[in-house]
Amino acid sequence: MDIIANYGTTLVLVAALFGFLMAWGIGANDVANAMGTSVGTKSLTIRQAIIIAMIFEFAGAYLAGGEVTATIRNGIIDSNAFIDSPDLLVLGMIASLLAAGAWLILASYFGWPVSTTHSIIGAIVGFAVVSIGPEAVQWSKFGGIVGSWVITPAISGVIAYFMFISVQKLIFNTDDPLNNAKRYVPFYMFLTALVICLVTIKKGLTHVGLHLSDGEGILLSIAISIAVAFAGWIYIRGQKYNPQDDSKMHFANVEKVFGILMVITACAMAFAHGSNDVANAIGPLSAVASIVASGGEISSQAAIAWWILPLGGIGIVIGLATMGEKVMATVGTGITHLTPSRGFAAQLATAATVVIASGTGLPISTTQTLVGAVMGVGLARGIAALNLGVLRNIVVSWIITLPAGAILAIAIFYVLQACFS
Question: Is the C-alpha dihedral spanning 47, 156, 185, 203 positive or negative?
Fold first, then answer.
């Protein structure tokens, strides 16, 4: 308690610095989840992808990032175990931010697509065990979150699989794929817009003062999605293609149409990622700020300070702009060969899975969700379409990340204790 009383402002400033570092690492590493498929399919250049991601990652973090933070802040460890020693919780959260942020930046430097969620949760569990004991960890909730890391890739993989199969049956495996693309692509545009509108209106805009009932939110989402689909229909019908082209050219023209759709799904994925994964940076930071502000009182529910969400959003944007290219290349081209239609199926499945998780407050691994979706698309074409060597390396990096976060957090926690005691 004396540490909080004597160094409260310093602790918040250090936590803000390390929280910004963590957000930087999220942007550097997880930008591949939002933009890797778009770049891999050549629907967007790297420069275009970074600009789009900067806009929508920040919007997702600022508008819809508050819902999932409660789980990161209060759900992994039992805050009641720290009531008599809130200074340990503050130092532990600061250590967790630095540990996870440092690991993410290191992984990004080498182009490893690791999980930011693994990093921060491993770090939080690590410091909790050495500071209070294993009883400080809510292992049932921890187990549920670990379970979600298996379930969500499976869900996104199934969605992507059937999405890709539907594209094949309705468009590519028909006598007139180009006209069928003009007919059905607006429907896919509607689905994409609906996914992003629902999470924005129902889970995001409450933070800026817009409160709608469930029915109003659904109706507004449907109306916006219909408008997007209608605009897409007009645009696609206005494109001129030579009817004398051979079948290969027809397929190429259809892929161009899906290239347009990839831009929409890229925006949706960037928003979804910003809304979900910003919690990994601002959750521990919010815990530190609220405990210091209350003089050491640990509450189960604490309002997020106004400056925390923008800090997380800005950190993500800077991270992806400065270090995002390496991981983007790994994810975009390494797992399987992607065309715009395949990338669309994977990206829409990932976005849908992530926004559902964000809305329910469950922190998932966006990396694993995307890999599951890309695998689903690859499996739709046969197991030979997957680069199993790359997948093996990615899985190994996931396994390493959890203990790496824990070990780093433990070491940093002891250093912070020595500095402030």
Answer: negative
Query: Within 13 Å and on the Cβ side, how many CA atoms surround 79?
Result: 20
Query: In angstroms, rounded to a whole number, what is the distance separating the alpha carbons of residues 172 and 170?
Result: 7
Q: What is the pLDDT of residue 96?
A: 95
Q: What SS3 state is found at 210?
A: coil
Selection from 417, 412, 397 nearest residue 119 by Cα? 397
Collect all residues with Cβ–Cβ distance below 8 Å to 252 and sequence separation of at least 6: none
Contact of 416 with 94, CB cutoff 8 Å: yes
Report how far residue 65's alpha carbon sits from residue 87's, in angstroms, rounded to the nearest whole number: 26
Among 265, 268, 260, which residue's Cα sits nearest to residue 232? 260
| The pLDDT of residue 25 | 93
Number of C-beta neighbours around residue 246 at 10 A:
9
pLDDT at 165: 93
CA distance linking residue 139 with residue 137, whole number of Å: 5
Q: Where are the alpha helices (DSSP H) in 82-176?
A: 86-110, 116-131, 139-167
Between CA 332 and CA 330 the distance in angstroms is 6
What residue ranges of the chain have pLDDT lower than 70? 1, 32-34, 64-75, 145, 199-211, 239-248, 250, 276, 299-303, 358-363
Distance (Å, whole) CA 149 – CA 147: 5
User: What local confidence, expressed as pLDDT, does residue 67 receive?
Assistant: 59
Looking at residue 128, what is its pLDDT? 92
Q: How far is CA 252 from the centre of its chain?
A: 31
Q: Output Rg (C-alpha) for the chain, integer angstroms.
A: 22
Half-sphere exposure of residue 185: CA atoms within 13 angstroms, side-chain side: 30
pLDDT at position 117, please?
81
pLDDT at 408: 97
Q: Alpha-carbon torsion 249, 342, 345, 168, what sign?
A: positive
- What does the DSSP assignment read for 403-414? HHHHHHHHHHHH
Which three-class secondary structure string do you get for 368-400?
HHHHHHHHHHHHHCCHHHECHHHHHHHHHHHHH
- Dist CA 330 CA 342 (whole Å): 17
Residue pair 44/263 in contact by the 8 Å Cβ criterion: yes
What span, in angstroms and rounded, lies between the C-alpha atoms of 265 and 58? Answer: 16
Q: Does residue 336 sit in helix, strand or coil?
A: strand
Q: Residue 82's pLDDT is what?
A: 84
What local confidence, expressed as pLDDT, does residue 141 receive?
74
Cα 64 from Cα 244, distance rounded (Å) = 48
